[in-house]
Amino acid sequence: MSHLPFLIRNLSLKGLAVADIGAGDGAFAREMAGEGAKVTAVEVEADKVAALAREAEGFEVVEGRGEKLPFADASLDLVAFMFSFHHVPGDVQDAALTESLRVLKPGGRLHIAEPLAEGALTEILLPLEDESEILRQSRAAIERRIGADLSLHARESYDVPYRYASLQAIIDDVVGIDPTRAARVPAVRAEIEARFQRLAESHSGDYLFQQPSVAWHLAPNR
């Protein structure tokens, strides 16, 4: 399943002003725009903003950070972090949540989905980067706010499908998300290749992975 079904079960997107924080390649921004939302995709680096803007269809792209969003107070109906909250530095994750509350209109929602450190794709990439601790910290940062200044409307676990043509496509994807990983690839490539051969399953010429994840649909306590 994709991220979208859980979100739209909890909130109709038609006509809503939405920010997709850490939008990556814009896939989820496109899906939300397809549901009738007025989407602004946010990326942290100018080159990523420029690349995404060239491909943007049906949504806008701006530069910004989770802890310093480029939006006015009470201007958005929905703020979404889709597999991006754990990329917010740990020391400013609380600030990013507070900033999300600042930009939400009365009745607005905060939607966060995070991968779990489980599954074949995680195991294949473990020699390159172990994200288990930062993912744990990110979940804890979210859960701490529930019952304080956030109320939980729904929480759900589900698998997100990823399809790749090759191991190199996987490496290109994760390096594109965080270019600092590129320098580490040569030292661990043999181990990654061995894990790929052991764990990857071919489907119609490609390799399909199911990434376990958890998502929260939240609202400000006001």
Automatic annotation (TrEMBL):
Could you state a single Gene Ontology molecular function term? S-adenosylmethionine-dependent methyltransferase activity
Protein's name according to its UniProt entry:
Methyltransferase type 11 domain-containing protein
Xref: CDD domains? AdoMet_MTases (cd02440)
Residue ranges occupied by any Methyltransferase type domain in the UniProt entry: 20-111
Q: Which Pfam families match?
A: Methyltransf_11
**The species this protein was found in:** Rhodobium orientis
